[in-house]
Amino acid sequence: MKKINYALLILTAAIMLFTISCGKDGAAGPKGDTGDKGSTGAVGPAGPAGANGTAGSMIYSGTTAPVATKGAVGDYYLNTTTGLLYGPKTSAGWGSGLSLKGATGATGAAGSATLSGAGTPAPSLGKNGDYYLDKINYLLYGPKSGSGWGAPVNLRGPAGPQGPEGNANVKVDTFTVKSEDWRYTDDSNNNYYYEIDANSYYKVKCVEHSNSLITASLLNTGLVLVYFQTDTNANGFQWQPLPYSYISAFSYNWVYETYEGKVRLYFYIGQVNPNSVPPDLETYQVSTKKYKIVMISGSIASSLQQNHINVNKYDEVSKFLNIK
């Protein structure tokens, strides 16, 4: 029986293991964790400039066909008179144009007409689709159909409320007096005078304004008031009553007198300081101003006093009498 040599067997196994370990790689191990992100690298140098692009086409326009020298290859041209579009232009020229106008459309259907007259429309009047206005009764018929005009529509709305009572007893006359309208003497070359009292008077300049509404009856039973605007740029409520005086170095005065069919306006300059000499009235230029005559007749005249209306305050008078 053979005797096993264990030492030799162990040595042989060790040599085989060593040989295997030094041979081909074994299986791959598991994937490891992602490493940290590296720092950003430096910017690279700019690339070279690109080549220029080709020139784009142009669109020209004019009232005639394009001339051969107009534009470049690839361009377009619109004839605004004929509506022809030429292009794109080639080396051979513009070629024939393309019409941008479509064909003429078909004739449309006749539209409806609006007729008018006094009273109801006759059945034979108009055609289907027409309208008719009765100008007497403000009735609108239509559109007319095969069965006739049909029932009309009343164009009048309901009656409004009763308006405020008119004031026929109040008349207003507004007018402008210019500098050149003032007269120093009458047609007989006589001076005008305004009597202050039985023993004194002023030499005055005068303007005579006619108004046929100033009747004898109005002067006897009514009231005639006169106002003027001291400022030509004043608004409608800045009216001052006459008589009116403005005192500076002298007194400048406007007064009036009423006659049947007219009003006389007077202007004079009074002396405030006996040692001062007033301007020469004959050459003095009275400024241009607006005047307003308010003529009040009937019971309205007495109602001013009954309602304590101050006739020297135009705003009170105008509001009470509804003067616009």
TrEMBL record:
Signal peptide range in chain numbering: 1-23
Recorded superkingdom: Bacteria
Assigned keywords, A-Z: Signal
Protein name: Collagen triple helix repeat-containing protein
Organism per entry: Mucilaginibacter lappiensis
